[in-house]
Amino acid sequence: MKNFKLIIALVTLTSIISCNDKRTPQLQYMPDMYVSIPYNPNGAEGLNGNPVNSEPVAGTIARGGHPAYDIADTNEGYELAKTSLTNPLEATEENLANGKAMYEIYCASCHGKKGDGNGVLSQREKFSGIPNYKDRDINAGSIYHVIMHGKNLMGSHASQITYAERWQIVQYVEVLRLDLAK
Questions:
Q1: φ/ψ (deg, to 5) at 104
Q2: 116 inside domain
Q3: What would the DSSP string read from start to end of the chain?
Q4: What percent of the chain has pLDDT over 90?
Q5: Confidence at residue 181, expressed as pLDDT on a 0 to 100 scale
Q6: Whole-angstrom Cα distance, residue 138 to residue 119?
Q7: What digits encode the pLDDT tens for the residues 120-152?
Q8: CATH number at residue 111
Q9: Is 87 part of a structural domain of the chain?
Q10: Measured between alpha carbons, how far is residue 133 from residues 36, 38, 61, 80 in Å?
Q11: Is residue 37 part of a domain?
Q12: What is the mean pLDDT of residues 91-101?
């Protein structure tokens, strides 16, 4: 009987609490999380009358960022990349090791582990005419350009590979090319 009275009391209390007026705001814990302070970008006055500037300074690069790649996806752009781009990364064992790892993920299925164009997809005859690095007149700039824009059947890998990883792959492809030439 005691338990029954306790249950009735809890049900009654819960009903009273849950049946309050939903139209009036209730107690809010940490109201700043519910009602944010609006900020106006583009130089308008923000919090405490201080101007808000959302535009970066011209000619700057965000911390951890890299320069924009503005070379067009054309034959002229390919030649420009070939003559003007150089690898900004230092040739270290760490860069080469990561370049090899990225190459095996993104490139080896078509180009082969040795860069001879005899990857798994070539062996299974899914793609034909995959070039052997030894037969191509390529350098760091042209390799980077092809990773960014793709060429022939190869699509762009720019969205899948970070800036540093692209250049690490370039380093590794250059090593493969030298090994093939021996």
A1: -65, -30
A2: yes
A3: -HHHHHHHHHHHHHHHHHTS-TTS----SSGGGTSPPP---TT-B-GGG-B---SPPTT---TT--------SSHHHHHHHHHH----S---HHHHHHHHHHHHHHTHHHH-TTSSS--HHHHTTSS--PPPGGGS---HHHHHHHHHH-BTTBPP-TTTS-HHHHHHHHHHHHHHHHHHH-
A4: 28
A5: 78
A6: 19
A7: 888 888 888 888 888 888 899 999 999 999 988
A8: 1.10.760.10
A9: yes
A10: 56, 55, 34, 20
A11: no
A12: 93
- Residue 156 belongs to what domain range? 75-181
pLDDT tens for each residue of 20-68: 666 766 666 676 666 766 655 555 555 555 555 566 677 777 776 777 7
Determine, yes or no, domain membership for 27.
no
Predicted pLDDT at 178 = 86
The total number of structural domains that make up the chain = 1
Per-residue pLDDT at 165 exceeds 90 = yes
Tokens of 7: 């249950």
Q: Is-contact 152 89, C-beta < 8 A?
A: no
